[in-house]
Specification:
By secondary structure, this protein is mainly beta. Helices cover 0% and strands 52% of the residues. The strands form 2 sheets. Strands 1, 2, 3, 6, 7, 8, 9 and 10 form an 8-stranded antiparallel β-sheet that branches. A two-stranded antiparallel ribbon has the order 4-5.
């Protein structure tokens, strides 16, 4: 029997659907090794740090001028809806854009590359 996996993902930013080409999300736990002087000459433990969420995405550039001002986005909510599985959505809260760039390809569409960070993440 074949396993089923999540299909397409719809991205919404503040209630508005955005056409996404690709999305990469990463979580950094912030844990750090604690270096101490001991007889074993190795790390003896770790310290808790601040968790951070980094988002890197590419969005299609619409021709009709309906594109949001990405550089001005602060405190946005980004929700991922796996198609056919509305009960497994993931949301990033307090998103702010840190960089915006454009990319044009001969064999594809023009896209905006965005780097963002989020203050919180929840699986809903």
């Amino acid at each position: 029997m074949a396993e089923k996996f999540a299909g397409h993902i719809v991205l919404t930013v503040d209630g508005r659907e955005i056409e996404v080409v690709s999305l990469n999300a990463s979580q950094n736990t912030g844990r750090k090794p604690v270096m101490t002087m001991n007889r074993k000459k190795r790390v003896s433990g770790h310290a808790r740090g601040l968790t951070t969420y980094e988002l890197s995405l590419e969005v299609a550039i619409p021709i009709d001028g309906s594109e949001p001002d990405w550089a001005a986005i602060e405190d946005a909510k980004i929700t991922l809806y796996p198609e056919g599985h509305d009960d497994q959505r993931e949301s990033y809260y307090g998103c702010a854009c840190t960089s915006v760039s454009a990319s044009y390809r001969v064999d594809g569409e023009a896209v905006r590359s965005l780097s963002m960070f989020a203050l919180d993440y929840k699986r809903e």
